[in-house]
Each structure stands twice: as structure tokens, then as C-alpha cells.
Amino acid sequence: TNEHDTYAGERAYLQGHAPVVNLYHINNFTFKVKEARLEKDASVKGRLKRMEYMYHKEGIRQSVEGVLLVHQHNHPHVLLLQIGNTFWKLPGGRLKPGEDPMEGLKRKLLNKLAPPPSQAVVSYW
């Protein structure tokens, strides 16, 4: 695929066609470790309390997650993000109220996976 086909899968999905899977060679990417992010809550009880508050404020929570596969060493790998010391999750997260799911997923992936602005390098292949 080329840079113009980046969202071919999204367009096919929205038009009711079978989605297209875009494949990009692993050498096109650089993998690094981002600085750890502190958890928002000090405990599970605190998290549940915050989630209850948000439910009363915004209603049912909508979220998106992306499955990113990397085929390396003749074996597929799923990208997971480590949260704290013991929790792993798919990249994604909560949508803003009224946000389009595809736009929200793009926003969350950029936020979770992109390098900090001071380290960003733009390259096209």
C-alpha cells in the first residue's frame, strides 16, 4: 500500500464493504519505551469511585481499542501496553462525549504510541 491507502480499511468499513487490512513492513517503525505514566487512582476502590462519578456525569462510557499485530520471527505478536507493574491492555481508551469512534481511536493511538513532541521525527516511506 502507499500513503494514500492508509485509511482504505476505514473507508471500506464505512461503505459496507469487507474491510481491508493494511500491511506495513516492520522496518518502517522504530520501537522505544515511553516514560511511565502514573495511574490516576491510588487503589481499585478509588478507580471505581471515579468511574461511578463519571457515569453520573456523562452516562454510559464508550471506549475503543486497537489490535496491532506484528509478525516477527515467523510468529505474530500483539502489541499490549503495560499499565503499572502488573496490568496489560490493548492500546485505546475512553471516547470523548459525541466523538466518532474511528477518530477517537486515532487520537488514542497517537497519544499512547507516538513519541513525545521533542523526539518526533516525520518520515514518509
Summarize the topology.
Blueprint: H1 8-14, H2 44-58, E1 63-65, E2 69-72, E3 75-78, E4 81-83, E5 87-89, E6 92-94, H3 101-113
Antiparallel strand pairs: 1-6, 2-3, 4-5
What does this protein look like?
This protein is an alpha+beta fold and 125 residues long. Helices cover 28% and strands 16% of the residues. The protein contains 3 helices and 6 strands. It has helices at 8-14, 44-58, 101-113, and strands at residues 63-65, 69-72, 75-78, 81-83, 87-89, 92-94. It has a two-stranded antiparallel sheet. It has a two-stranded antiparallel sheet with strand order 2-3. Strands 4-5 form a two-stranded antiparallel ribbon. A hairpin with a 2-residue loop joins strand 2 and strand 3. The protein is globular, with a radius of gyration of 17 Å. The termini are close together.
Key words describing this protein structure:
125 residues, alpha+beta, two-stranded antiparallel sheet, two-stranded antiparallel ribbon, 3 helices, 6 strands, globular
Beta-strand content: 15-25%
End-to-end span in angstroms?
A: 10 Å
Strand order in space, largest sheet? 1-6
What count of helical segments does DSSP give?
A: 3
Mean residue pLDDT:
75
Principal-axis shape: globular
Strand count = 6
Order of helices and strands: HHEEEEEEH
Helix content: 25-40%
Characterize the largest beta sheet: strand count, sense, and whether it forms a barrel.
Answer: 2 strands, antiparallel
How much is the radius of gyration in Å?
17 Å
The parts where pLDDT drops under 50 for at least 5 residues are: none
Structural class: alpha+beta
